[in-house]
From TrEMBL:
Protein name (database record): Aromatic ring-hydroxylating dioxygenase subunit alpha
UniProt-listed Pfam families: VanA_C (PF19112)
Domain Vanillate O-demethylase oxygenase-like C-terminal catalytic positions: 91-267
Provenance organism: Mangrovicoccus algicola
Keyword match Oxidoreductase: yes
Keywords attached to this entry: Dioxygenase, Oxidoreductase
Length: 278
């Protein structure tokens, strides 16, 4: 466990869709979050105010004294995109497990049958994974997968191109084929709020070119996918993510997961992880 490292990162604690005040929990710390549609405040049980920034449709805060910079998603500034916070999904699993699941391609035909995958087309084609040292991020590129319905706006089954990016231990960004604009990428992200080492809240977010689907339809589409993942995540053992490669046997399809775990261990980002067999 390395909470000392984790406290200096930014985390989402609310979205900007619903104004109001609510209690929540972050890194084993009770918080009060207030959002009035224009400004936000975050305080802990002792009354200490924590820094706030509004980015990507969410209220973010940091509990540490030396906040790291929050990562950039340049597509959020592109005109014409619809920026869609997709609510939240509370999951009884390690926050790192939630991110790793988002990066996993192989489970599509089995967990998201008829949407993101379907049997017998279960092959994960070779792809490239790299830790980009210049930005300290994990990237998976040249990913291809057959999908029955890649997005709410997709008209039918097609082969989808993907790129995955991990810019933060508890956030991941997916760039994928945009059905209405083949020259562009759709952007889907998962921002994870670590409630504790074994419980988290996933905040999905999208930046899409889609002039046909309603906001409710797009949110429902993403919520359906994340709810399907929840039952799998809540039954994974061990609950915390193992970082020692000897603790779980990877396959060729797990290249992104392998790089993610290696990157976490190198950074000392071990909150929600197991660093050795127990």
């Amino acid at each position: 466990m390395s909470r000392d490292h984790a406290v200096n990162d930014w985390y989402p604690v609310a979205d900007t869709v619903r104004p109001g005040a609510r209690a929540t929990r972050l890194l084993d710390t009770d918080l009060q979050v207030a959002w009035d549609g224009a400004a936000a405040a975050v305080t802990d049980a002792a009354g200490t105010a924590h820094p706030v920034q509004i980015r990507y449709g969410h209220v973010w805060t940091c509990l540490g004294a030396a906040p790291r910079a929050l990562f950039e998603i340049s597509e959020a500034e592109e005109p014409g995109r619809r920026l869609v916070p997709c609510g939240r999904v509370r999951v009884r699993c390690s926050p790192l497990r939630a991110v790793e699941n988002f990066l996993d391609i192989a489970h599509f035909p089995f967990v998201h049958k008829g949407i993101l995958g379907a049997e017998p087309q279960t092959e994960v084609f070779p792809y490239a994974v790299k830790i980009r040292e210049e930005v300290d991020e994990v990237w998976a590129t040249q990913v291809r997968f057959h999908q029955p319905q890649a997005a709410k706006s997709a008209g039918g089954a097609t082969e989808i191109r993907y790129e995955y990016r991990v810019p933060h231990p508890m956030a991941a960004v997916l760039y994928k084929t945009c059905p209405p604009r083949p020259e562009a990428w759709d952007v889907i992200a998962i921002f994870v709020q670590p409630v504790s080492e074994t419980e988290c809240i996933a905040w999905p977010w999208m930046a899409l070119y889609d002039d046909e689907s309603s906001h409710a339809e797009m949110v429902q589409f993403q919520q359906e996918i994340f709810v399907q993942d929840r039952s799998i995540l809540e039954n994974q053992l061990p609950v915390r993510l193992p970082l020692d490669p000897r603790m779980e046997i990877p396959t060729r399809a797990d290249l992104t997961s392998i790089a993610y775990r290696r990157w976490l261990k190198r950074r000392g980002a071990t909150y929600g992880a197991m660093t050795e067999a127990q």
